[in-house]
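agent> Task received from the user: take the single chain below, predict its 3D structure, and emit structure tokens. No templates, no multimer pairing.
agent> Plan: (1) validate residues, (2) run structure prediction, (3) serialize to tokens, (4) report one or two observations.
agent> Step 1 OK, no nonstandard residues flagged.
tool_call: predict_structure(input=
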Amino acid sequence: MRLVSQVIAIVLAAYVPPPATVGSAAYAQSNYTQAGFQAYLPQLRVEAQRAGIRQATIDRIFPTLEFSARTVELDRAQPGGASGGSAVPAFAPYRERHVSADLISRGRSRYAANIGRLNEIGRRYGVHPSIMVAIWGHETSYGAVTGDFDLLNSLATLAYEGRRRQLFADEFIATLKLVDRGYARSQLKGSWAGATGYPQFLPSMFLRLGVDADGDGRANIWSSEIDALASIANYLSNAGWKPGVPWGIPVSVPSSFSRAGLSTRLISPRCPRVHERHSNWRTMAEWRALGLVPQGGGWPGNSEFATLIEPDGPGRTAYLLTNNYRAILDYNCSNFYALSVGLLADAVAR
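)
tool_result: status=success, residues=350
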């Protein structure tokens, strides 16, 4: 089952244009207040009761909730994602930042330190260990930057703000469920948008896909590297990851290559601007017959299907992308994100 709802990409990429003056701290302060927030909380309390949250948890948490003007400011300042402008930026500068020598070096260290358990997880979920490590590195720099926003305050504030009220109300209630299960509020911290832990899962995602891989009886994506890596693998497996298939391969495209007839006719229901940069699907054998040459490696199975993307334009490195690339896009629907995760994974595994 492909997980296409309530993922981090939806939270950060969907943009509804606010009034002309929106986007500043002054706007957040003048239009949303602690008093207004407190007036909204009874509605949220009713939703929590209907969702079966323990009354003791409700009575303990709700009086402590505080409006976060900083959360509203950051939400209102979000750009338009893939639709912001017609020019497509080059991938190379993004790659330099996110597939850096430092991230590769630290990723190799984490990979080596956990290789035994990583291989066990890989066998269980069919996901190559280096992909798990690369997502961990990309999301939080291997746990160094996980966010320090109080999830309950931020999610209640975003529900009050109202742009995606039900989404954030549901995530707030999911966080209360974690409190009901004994997770300390001091542990439930993350980004302003509710992403938390080493993999930056939303609370509802953690409830569905969090894994206790170290055997201590509790899934813990905040301080257990093994639990976090297994949870990432579980996510990708649920998103359709195919065992034994690479995410893609870098290729050289001959100067005589004709791009006529390569455009895809498929329209993705989610982030179509991301997917429309891909060609139509062809087998690896067909791409090989068209003169494409792998860079630094061989071809996957000839019958494996892939699409072509040229993120920096003709004459630069291109990539053939398998179905597993789509699983990475399900985690974060950005070509630059998915490409850098794949390339970081390849470098870590060398």
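agent> Step 4: summary for the user.
Confidence is low (pLDDT under 50) at residues 1-29, 80-85.
agent> Done.
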